[in-house]
Structure formats: C-alpha cells, structure tokens
Amino acid sequence: MNQKVCHYQFPKGFLWGSSTSGPQSEGTVQGDGKGLNNWDYWFSIEPEKFHHCIGPETTSTFYTNYKSDIALLKETGHTVFRLSIQWSRLIPEGIGQVNSKAVAFYRELFKEIKAQGIKPIVNLYHFDLPYILQEKGGWESKEIVWAYETYAKTCFSLFGDLVDTWITFNEPIVPVECGYLGHYHYPCKVDAKAAVQVAYNTQLASSLAVKACHEHNSEHKISIVLNLTPAYPRSDHPEDLKAARIAELFQTKSFLDPSVLGVYPDELISILKEEDILPEYCADELAIIKNNPVDFLGVNYYQPLRVQAPRRQKEQPITLDCYFEPYNMPGKKINPHRGWEIYEPGIYDIALNLKENYSNIEWIVTENGMGVEGEEAFLVDGQIQDDYRIDFMANHLIQLHKALKEGANCKGYLIWTFIDCWSWLNAYKNRYGLIALDLETQKRTIKKSGYWFKALSQHNGFRK
After folding, report:
1. Strand pairing category for 334-335 and 340-341
2. Three-class SS of residue 411?
3. Which residues pair with 414 in a beta bridge?
4. Which of the pair, 119 or 318, is modelled with greater confidence?
5. pLDDT digits (tens, 9 = 90+) for 122-148
6. Closest by Cα among 405, 298, 307, 394 to 344
7. Exposed/middle/buried for 188, CB within 10 Å: 0-12, 13-18, 19+?
8. Which of 57, 337, 401, 448 is most buried, by CB atoms within 10 Å?
9. Helix (H) or strand (E) segment spanning residue 367
10. What is the rounded distance in angstroms from the CA atom of residue 72 to the CA atom of residue 266?
11. φ/ψ (deg, to 5) at 142
C-alpha cells in the first residue's frame, strides 16, 4: 500500500534561514582588536574542560570567510540569517573605546548579507561577556547592566542604518542555570541567590535595550530569544503536576512573562521570597520592565523537559532539583548521538501557549536542529547524507504547520546552524550544520540537508 504524501504549504512571506553566534563562528585573528570574553579566559586556564581541547579562538573562521559563507547562505535558500555581534570584539574593555576594525567588519558583513537579498536579524548577546566585566562581578553586578545598555545603544547607532531587527539576549536562562547553578558556563558557581540576581539583571538589561532601540528608531523591531522548553509531568499525580508547573516557572516564565507581559509571575515571586533569595531591585527598574515589552519573540526548541516530583527534601545550597527532577520517560524517541529526546509536538504546544496566554504575540523559530557526532560516517561520494536531519526538520515543521492552521502567529523557521560550528564545552563534538566543515582545511561542503532546505525555501513548503 502506498503511503499518502501530504503537501505542507507555509504562509506567503514566511522566513527561512539559520542562526549562529559570533563567539561560535567568528574566531580570532591576530591584530583584529578583539578583547577576551569569558569563554576565551576559561579556555586559557582550563583547556582540558573543552572537548579535544578545542577553544574559541578558531571556531569556523567566519571572520575571514564571511563573503564566501554568505554566498553559501544564498545557495542553501536563506531569506533570513540570525547572527550576533560580539561585545568583546566591538568594545574590547566592555566599556569605553570602540574597536574600529570591528565596526568595519560588522558593517561590511551586514551589507553583504543584505546584498544577497537576505534579511539580517542581529543578536546583541550570546553568552559572551567581556572578561574584564566578569572581573567586576559579571551579571551579578548592576554596573554590568548599565554597561550593556551603553553597548546596545552603540550598536543601534553604528549599525541601525543596516539592521532593523534586533535581539537582546539569546537563551538568558542558560547562563543562569549553567553558570550559577552548575559548572557548564563560567564562573561555575552554585549560588541560588546569585542566580536570581543574574536573571533579574539580565532581564533589566534586556528591557533597557528594548527602550533604547525604540528611542533610536521607532520603526525597528526588537526581541529576546528564549528556549521555551515545555515541561511535561511524569503523571497526573498532584506532586508531579506541581513539579512541572514550577519547572516552567523557573525555566520558561522567568523571562517569558517579564519580556512579553512586563511582570513576573506571582508564584515565582512567592517562591523566591520564601527562600529569601529575592534580587535587589527598585520600583523604577520594575517600571522599565513593565513599560518595554519586546515586539516579537524568538523561540529555540530542541527537546522537551520531562519532570517528576523531587525525591529529596530541600537543603542548602538551594538548587532546581529541590523543586523538580528529570524524568527519563520509557520508550521516548531519542537522538542517540546527542542523547536528547526528539519530541516534535513540543513545538505545537509552544505555539498554542503563546497564542492562548501571551496575546498570540508574533514569533519565529530561531533555533531547532539535530547534532550528530561522527557525522563523517554518513559521507557518500563527498557529501554528508543526513536524511536524519531532513526528517528532524520536516517532522517539526509538520507540527508547526498544524499550529499555523490553528492561528499561531509564527513568521519563520531558522535552523541551528548553517555551517558546523564550535559549541562551548562540546567544541565540534556534535555537528549541526546544513554545511559540513573540515577542521583541517576549513573547506565547506553542502550536505544533503542543505539542498533540501533550499527546495523548502524556494517552494515555501514541502511534501512528506
């Protein structure tokens, strides 16, 4: 029996593209004027923590190869490209003098993207704090908030004639969890009160950037990118349901609500107050957050969060597993290379949540992708035959298409990422790109998925 083939057509003007970040793609060239960021410093003192001791100085050499790389964007059907400015490249000391070489690089970069008929969406911060500001307390310090506001205003002034769509932060909950409740981002502290202060200061900085963007040009749009990972309870038992609700409070609503609605959830405030870990704040700061919601939302989705009630009593220091624990659901579909669950309906659930609870705010998928280790095993006649990545994208797009038919306000789909890139402690362990990168020669080769993505973009849909 022949299986029925369905045609999934997306709305006119739907955006197709990919995302990357400066610290994961640009690399460092001697004499480029870039300052140290927190990743550069951490690698300099503990290189063994990074997969195969590969640090951020090389990455995928986008700084020197951006023109040919942008041509590959065109060749793979991009109509939009999300990238980031490195604060440490533009303002090496975090505050003060601007690096003229960085200004020239980013201006030429944005011009080249636009010349290819591709829309740039530019992120101001992707986990890369200038290290000199980390020495001053990092995001625990209000001083960094004002430094970031100045940095954002500098970007709007320098590049606002070329860029009309901005992002304040990428996945701001990740540095909170990984840097202040774990050991995966510098400064590797476990301090719940510091974590809460970092989260609050980051939100305040984001709202200040929104305000500055609108003051610079009221026609420009600005967003925040959040990894809106739905939390699914192990069972309908009240304690499991409570664990899932609190997981979403911490990991989703802690930035989603203030960014979109302008206020923090009452239940989250109550928990922080009960634990005596409320951040230092004032009424004027809360008014800035209240009065400067984002114009649209960027959503990153890779896998669901499955949780159960915690099995141990709360103790010091306070950590997230005092409130919920991961649940390893039997029979789940999984990416065996990355170890992450593949659950396509999660993207549909995100869409309905935004429609029903956040005024159906305009949004785009800013990251969705599949990392594979040892991808050279799928090399045939010089090309990576990554049908698994094509299936991953198609199956998520089917769920997104379903949500669009039900009125979701999604305007685009961006894959992570266009060329295999360096990824924090994992370096090049897992490959995500539509284009393969040979680390020794820096040769780029379009994978099978890259050509599929081009057809997807050209037809504004696909058949499956």
Report:
1. antiparallel
2. strand
3. 17
4. 119
5. 999 999 999 999 999 999 999 999 999
6. 394
7. middle
8. 401
9. strand 363-367
10. 47
11. -65, -25
Answer left, alpha or beta for residue 311, where phi above 0 means left and psi between -120 and 50 means alpha: alpha
What CA–CA distance (Å, rounded) separates 211 from 202?
Answer: 14
The H or E element spanning position 412 is strand 410-416
Say if CB 77 and CB 41 are below 8 A apart: no
E strand or H helix at 14, and its extent?
A: none
DSSP character for 138?
Answer: G
pLDDT of residue 438: 92
CA distance linking residue 125 with residue 105, whole number of Å: 17
403 contacts: CB under 8 Å, gap ≥ 6: 347, 348, 351, 352, 355, 410
Choose the catalytic residue: 26, 177, 344, 367. 367
Sign of CA dihedral 110, 414, 453, 341: positive
Distance between CA atoms of residues 240 and 233, nearest Å:
5
Distance CA 123, CA 416 (A): 14
175-224 pLDDT, tens digit each:
999 999 988 999 999 999 999 999 999 999 999 999 999 999 999 999 99
Task: Please give the structure tokens belonging to residue 364.
Answer: 């785009």
- Tell me the two tokens of residue 397: 């797009």
Classify residue 297 as left (phi > 0), alpha (psi -120 to 50) or beta.
Answer: beta
The answer to whether the CB of 425 falls within 8 A of the CB of 52 is: no
Rounded-to-10 torsion of CA 405, 409, 411, 417? -90
Q: Given pLDDT bands bounded at 50, 70 and 90, which one contains residue 319? A: confident
Residue-wise pLDDT tens digits, 350-409: 999 999 999 999 999 999 999 999 999 999 999 999 999 999 999 999 999 999 999 999
Most confident of 60-69, 143-152, 312-321: 143-152
Is 171 an active-site residue? yes
Inter-helix orientation angle 283-291/192-216, to 10°: 50
Instruction: Give me the percent of the chain exceeding a pLDDT of 90.
Output: 88
Residues 6+ apart with CB under 8 A from 30: none
> Which residue type does 281 have?
Y
Report which of 349, 343, 277 is spatially closest to residue 304, judged by C-alpha positions: 343
Query: Per the confidence metrics, is the pTM higher than 0.70?
Result: yes
Question: 224 pairs with which residues across the strands?
Answer: 297
Q: Residue 172 — φ and ψ, nearest 5°?
A: -65, -20
**Locate tokens 């990991």: which residue?**
251
* Overall average pLDDT of the 330-349 stretch: 91
Q: Are 25 and 88 in contact (CB under 8 A)?
A: no
- Whether 367 is a known active-site residue: answer yes
Name the nearest CA neighbour of 228 among 298, 126, 177: 298
End-to-end Cα spacing for the chain: 16
